[in-house]
């Protein structure tokens, strides 16, 4: 019976494709929160002038980061560019 060594198991784990490996990078943008909506949704006006509907990222929600109207935030935009995810609050 063959039992792989620790090094072989680690190498195998590194070569195994991850959950996010096949996904493409999301476009990032910066904007200002203009409206707070129910269910942790926000309307954000981007620096380019477009308005995006965004939800808060799980990492920020777990850390109880408060998002208020007027806050500058960094957003990852989806493929259709009308929706996104707030990933960072810029400044205070």
Give a short synopsis of this structure.
The protein has helices at residues 6-15, 58-62; strands at residues 27-37, 41-46, 51-56, 72-77, 83-90.
Description:
The chain is an alpha+beta fold and 92 residues long. The chain has one domain (24-90): Nucleic acid-binding proteins (OB fold (Dihydrolipoamide Acetyltransferase, E2P), Beta Barrel), CATH 2.40.50.140. It is built from 2 helices and 5 strands, in the order αβββαββ. The chain has a 5-stranded mixed beta barrel with strand order 1-2-3-5-4. A hairpin with a 3-residue loop joins strand 1 and strand 2 (41-46). The longest helix has 10 residues, at 6-15. The model has no long low-confidence stretch (mean pLDDT 82).
| Overall helicity | 10-25%
Largest sheet: 5 strands, mixed, barrel
Shape: elongated
User: Could you give me the name of the CATH homologous superfamily?
Assistant: Nucleic acid-binding proteins
Number of strands: 5
Count of spatially separate domains: 1
CATH fold type: OB fold (Dihydrolipoamide Acetyltransferase, E2P)
Strand order of the largest sheet: 1-2-3-5-4
Order of helices and strands: HEEEHEE
Radius of gyration: 19 Å
Mean pLDDT: 82
| Name of the top-level CATH class | Mainly Beta
Low-confidence regions:
none
Strand content: 35-45%
Decide which structural class fits the backbone: alpha+beta
Number of helices: 2
Can you tell me the CATH architecture? Beta Barrel
Alpha carbon gap, first and last residue: 60 Å
